[in-house]
Amino acid sequence: MHAIVTFIAKYFIALSVIGICIVWLRLNMSNKKRFIVVAVIGAILTIVLAKLASKLYYDPRPFVAGHFTPYFSHGNDNGFPSDHTLFASFLAFLSWYYSKKAGLGLLIVALLIGLSRVVAGVHHLLDILGSMVFAFVGSWLAFYLVQKIAQKRSADKSVTP
Length: 161
Description:
Elements: H1 2-11, H2 13-25, H3 29-56, H4 62-65, H5 83-96, H6 100-119, H7 125-158
Helix pairs in contact: 1-6, 2-5, 2-6, 3-5, 3-7, 5-6, 5-7
């Protein structure tokens, strides 16, 4: 059981990366460009939210607070939010805007990663939930902003004298 949880917690992130690449490859050229813009803006927003939150809230890792050995070695820094879950969740939410099926699949992967990290003793559930919220907000804001800019550009082109 330890080996399975450790594998999921540490290496399932590769499934998220592979999944997002497949989503991107299946897009047409205009959506590929928009996807990249949303990804860059969303990643920046998500990271800023997570970094701000980690400065405002300190959550000692479970193995530090509970004085036990986690399933795998890990630093004893602030556990909030979970970087692995943040990254996997961001990729899941990003893909959701372009493929609901892929987004759902990647969201399940992100949940598995987060829950495995809780079981492994390196994160609390709050670290996982916080990561998912920050990833959702960052990706949604980026998608919304890019959509608004694209609509404005489209409206400006149609009103050209």
